[in-house]
Amino acid sequence: MRRYLAVFLIDWQNQFVYRLNFLLWRLRNILRLLMTFFLWKGIYQTGSAVFGFSQPQMFSYILLVLLVQSIILSAPSADNIGGEIGSGDLSNYLVKPISYLKYWFVRDLSSKLLNVICALIEIFLLWLIFRPELVLNFSVSSLIGFLLICLVSVPAYYFLSLLTRFVSFWNPENTWGLSFLIIIFIETLAGSIFPLDILPAWGKLAVQFTPFPYLIYYPAAIFLGKITGFYLLRILLQAFIWMLILFFFARLVWIKGLRVYGAEGK
Amino acid sequence: MAEIQVKDLKKTFRVQQKDPGFIGSVKSLFNRQYQDINAVAGVSFEINQSELVGFIGPNGAGKTTTLKMLAGLLYPTSGEVSVLGFTPWDRKPEFQKQFSLVMGQKNQLWWDLPAMESFILNKEIYEIPDAKFKSNLDQLVDLLDVRPLLKTQVRKLSLGQRMKMELIAALLHTPRILFLDEPTIGLDVVMQKKMRDFIKEYNRSFHSTIILTSHYMEDVKDLCRRVIIIDNGKILFDGLLSDIVNKFSKHKTITVVFDRPVEKRELLKLAEIREFNFPRAVLTVDRVSVSAVAGKLLQDFPVADLNIEEPVIEDIIREVFTNHRPS
Questions:
Q1: Is A102 on the interface with B (CB under 8 A)?
Q2: What pTM does this model have?
């Protein structure tokens, strides 16, 4: 355990080396948020409820997505694992008594912590500037539900992103384009851009059979108190099952990938 | 029992082939052509504790591939390997704590942080006790003379300084077995010498077993008593460095200096002339007839000085590689 604590600490230090990079990344998030914010503001001028969401509900969702994204989707592993497999840098870890996959998961956690802190500050600032009307049905059970689904969806997203990066084992030359495409796809279906309620009925149904909504949409909806009681338990169970499925797939592909790994680049 | 045992080890890679140019790229998108490359084609050897063995061979000979299998990075196509009683590619932590792989062109240090941070991380990864970590670090830092650099960002270090730090990171857990792949690549001559002295010293004081690959014959000559020559995935020679000369060189060189001019024709009757520049001549002579030729020279020619020399090892190895290449 201590070795992974050491990984956490060194990554934490490392994050402060790229101060400018980090600042720009946060700025990107804020800009994207502002764009969504103004887009919806425009839409709400035509009516008081759109797709069953009132304006305060929608703004709460948008601000919340910023927080959920920083918890679930911020993962430097996604930017590095494919490259390390392709370049052969993976060898550095494979010869050591440490698990490469746990190593990157811990680094993700370190990055998530920093991102969550920043997201909370940004949400507060945005709220201070725009003073939007928000709906917060704070209840202990939705808060616990939110924490539980994060606990499950953080590893689930990690396994999912691993699966996209492991393509490098078979195709070391390029996976960046592919991964980028997949990530955009995932983020949209997860509910980063809009709440999934606005999808047509068939779309909503289809998305329910994928692991994606458990990453953003459900956590946000649980937090907002839209999912409660027995329904909440069902969603939590389903999220857990998806996490297990993704875990087994990621593990399988990892083992197969190591068999073909060429340890290139000297 | 030998620390490293390798029996009939083979590794075949499937390598994608692509025609040159844009058309070739398009074609390879739809119809990938593969070729099987026998990188290691049946290699067997044993290495005992505290031996320092040099792997030599031209680029693509199979040295690094063999090393990677010994370190557990690659699964062999067939054959058996036992290192300290472990099968390397099982990647057991108990095994991994006892060896280190240093690749001259790979970094394990955190690029943006001082090297010390990477050392601390390795301390935890390898579960090195505090006292041992401190004494090992002190010793290595002093041996390599890098104490003032410990707090400098790795990216700001020179290649030589970085290589020293890489070595420290690899040696903190005092590995019993050390695989060094081109440890002196890219370093200047002075630095190469320092590296070699360090490796020698490390081998002596820790009795660790070391396998070294290098393109620089100097490294091998200076460090290794035993060498394994690999080419085309096969072992051409496994034995003492000094025996290479006897085994592969059928010739010796005689250098003579004459008092008075001599006829080149007369000399040619005795031996092959490599160089003739009065008063000096260099002759290549069959190993078996060296003494006879030397005797004849002294008897029949006006010889002022005569020297019999073994050919230099670099020449022999070059000869070995050229003769074994299919081209």
A1: no
A2: 0.85
B189: CB partners within 8 A, 6+ apart: none
Q: Which of B16, B40, B91, B181 to mutate to test the interface with A (most CBs of A within 10 A)?
A: B91
Nearest to B97 among A7, A97, A258 (CB): A97
Are B125 and A3 inside 8 Å of each other by CB?
A: yes
- B233 interfacial to chain A (CB closer than 8 Å): no
What is the block-wise mean pLDDT of chain B (327 residues), using blocks of 10 residues?
A: 93 81 75 84 95 89 92 95 96 96 87 95 96 95 92 93 92 95 85 89 92 86 91 91 80 88 83 85 87 89 88 76 61
Contacts B181 to A, Cβ<8 Å: 266
Q: In degrees rounded to 5, what are phi and psi of residue A225?
A: 80, 20
CA angle at A186 for the pair A183 and A189, rounded to the nearest 5°: 150
Say if CB B61 and CB B227 are below 8 A apart: no
Single out the residue of B91, B269, B88, B103 nearest to residue B184, CA to CA.
Answer: B103
Distance CA A54, CA A68 (A): 21
Amino acid found at B73 = L
Please, what sign has the CA dihedral across residues B57, B60, B62, B66?
A: positive
Residues of A with Cβ-Cβ distance to B93 under 8 angstroms: 97
**What tokens were used for B56?**
């030599």
Task: Express each pLDDT in A212-253 by its tens digit.
Answer: 999 999 999 999 888 889 999 999 999 999 999 999 999 999
Round the average pLDDT of chain A to a whole number and report it.
88
Question: Is A3–B124 a contact, with Cβ atoms under 8 angstroms apart?
Answer: yes
Domain boundaries, chain A: 2-260
**A92 and chain B in contact, CB less than 8 A:** yes
Q: What is the rounded CA–CA span in Å between residue A46 and residue A232?
A: 33
Rounded alpha-carbon distances, angstroms, from residue B91 to A46, A100, B145: 63, 12, 33
Exposure class string for B26-53: b at 16+ Cβ within 10 A, else e: eeeeeeeeeeeeebbbebebebeeebbb
